[in-house]
């Protein structure tokens, strides 16, 4: 048999499982050429995170160039909108009408093949070649015409997926067994795939449940809900708001020494002017604990936790949402809480200023200093209020 193989995928990033599969197809089907086609927007997958289209293209070149039968094709990356295989096949067949086409997929893709756009049209243009990736008995969807499908067995799988590679890279661990050396070098050079996904809500809950009392945990849940609601109202990201709300008090019950040590180990030791403000150390230590012990890297969440007590000039919307949510959560019962809730419903700035003024008054009563970051923020809020519209 001779003809052209089409091997598509997100390739985000391409790994040695992909290379091994493409080589198996090329050998088994005696293909002269295999086009490796990274998808632009894969219609049945969430938008690719972590690497740009250009980077995925380059990574494919670096991975597949070891075999002269392979060429990387950017057609789908260059085409705006969702990448439909049927359009790619039509374009290829129009270029070379006499050529036999083989669409190469793994069994995981077969399960969803009949959801692909115009899958019947695809089968008119090519033979579908399916690589059996595991020992599970293969069930061909009954509506597939059997004579247009070839099943290839005997493949020795490399148990890896791009999703796993991304996760391992994000945690800075060794991925060299699964990536072509040149591709790995490129990923390191460009700093790709270092974003860790946000923690699941369940995970965040478990972290704080380990270190907080049931009452504090309940407060955190209430703040998470209030923060999510404010985020929805004011246009911040609700998921980050919920997570930051859940995590904001994580170090509330740590000892002063533990808080001090965490801040120092995180590289943001307490400042001399913070020595007398032990009531806010848990916010700074909370940022440190989440980064050092839980592996949270999301700067927006870390910032919201750090500033939830004091605030600072130039608060982000998320910082401010969590700051206010902490004071209006459903479990709060101080005398003017309803007043703060109605201010928060109208304006985050008004609610923040009201809260700051209240904190300053209480500190003054007990002869304590306000944190310089809070003073700077109060000034900023006042000048915003007095600015002409
Ligand atoms: P993700 O984890 O993002 O879903 P993936 O690793 O499964 O990605 P895709 O880009 O979706 O990779 O896959 C492209 C093609 O490669 C598919 O046909 C898939 O069946 C096949 N494939 C993916 N991983 C392997 C593997 N480890 N061994 C053999 N084939 C694979």
Helix-strand category: alpha/beta
Beta-strand residue percentage: 5-15%
Q: Which small-molecule species are bound to the chains here?
A: adenosine-5'-triphosphate
The total of helices stands at: 18
The radius of gyration computed from the alpha-carbon positions, rounded to a whole number of angstroms, is: 28 Å
Shape: elongated
Enumerate the strands of the largest sheet in spatial order, edge to edge or round the barrel. Answer: 3-2-1-4-5-6
Question: What is the number of beta strands?
Answer: 6
| Biggest sheet statistics | 6 strands, parallel
Q: CA-to-CA gap between the ends? A: 75 Å
| Helix-strand string | EHEHEHHEHHEEHHHHHHHHHHHH
Helical percent range?
Answer: 40-55%
């Amino acid at each position: 048999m001779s003809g052209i193989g089409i091997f598509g995928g997100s390739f985000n990033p391409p790994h040695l499982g992909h290379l091994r599969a493409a080589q198996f197809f090329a050998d088994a089907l005696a293909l002269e050429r295999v086009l490796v086609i990274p998808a632009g927007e894969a219609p049945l997958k969430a938008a690719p995170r972590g690497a740009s289209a250009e980077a995925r293209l380059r990574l494919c070149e670096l991975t597949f160039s070891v075999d002269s039968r392979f060429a990387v094709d950017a057609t789908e990356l260059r085409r705006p909108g969702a990448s439909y295989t049927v359009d790619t096949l039509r374009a290829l067949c129009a270029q070379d009408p006499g050529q036999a086409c083989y669409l190469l997929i793994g069994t995981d893709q077969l399960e969803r093949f009949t959801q692909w756009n115009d899958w019947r049209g695809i089968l008119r243009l090519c033979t579908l070649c399916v690589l059996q990736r595991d020992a599970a008995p293969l069930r061909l969807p009954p509506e597939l015409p059997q004579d247009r499908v070839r099943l290839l067995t005997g493949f020795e799988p490399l148990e890896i997926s791009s999703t796993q590679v991304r996760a391992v890279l994000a945690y800075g661990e060794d991925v060299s067994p699964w990536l072509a050396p040149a591709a790995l070098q490129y990923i390191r050079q460009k700093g790709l795939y270092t974003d860790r996904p946000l923690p699941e809500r369940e995970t965040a809950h478990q972290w704080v449940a380990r270190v907080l009392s049931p009452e504090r945990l309940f407060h955190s849940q209430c703040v998470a809900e209030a923060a999510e609601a404010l985020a929805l109202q004011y246009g911040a990201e609700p998921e980050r708001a919920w997570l930051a709300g859940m995590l904001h008090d994580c170090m509330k019950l740590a000892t002063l020494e533990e808080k001090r040590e965490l801040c120092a180990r995180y590289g943001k030791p307490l400042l001399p002017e913070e020595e007398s403000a032990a009531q806010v150390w848990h916010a700074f230590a909370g940022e440190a604990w989440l980064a050092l012990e839980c592996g949270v890297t999301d700067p927006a969440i870390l910032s919201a936790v750090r500033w939830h007590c004091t605030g600072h000039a130039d608060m982000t919307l998320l910082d401010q949402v969590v700051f206010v949510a902490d004071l209006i959560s459903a479990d709060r019962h101080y005398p003017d809480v309803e007043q703060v809730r109605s201010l928060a419903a109208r304006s985050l700035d008004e609610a923040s200023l009201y809260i700051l003024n209240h904190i300053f008054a209480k500190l003054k009563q007990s002869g304590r200093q306000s944190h310089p970051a809070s003073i700077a923020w109060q000034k900023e809020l006042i000048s915003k209020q007095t600015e002409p519209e």
